[in-house]
Amino acid sequence: MFIFIKQYYAMGLYNADNLSTLKLGGLLTEAQYNELVGTDEDTTTTDTKTEAK
Known about the structure:
The chain has 53 residues and is mainly alpha-helical. The chain contains three helices and no strands.
């Protein structure tokens, strides 16, 4: 499955948000997600704080 996701991402059919959804659904591992989007950080938690300006 990863090879197809990788191809779709390369063709622009999937974006980082789509990959995040696939990761949360268990179709991508953290390492595979990071390989595709080029990050080394843990993306399973999101910071919901907003900075007031």
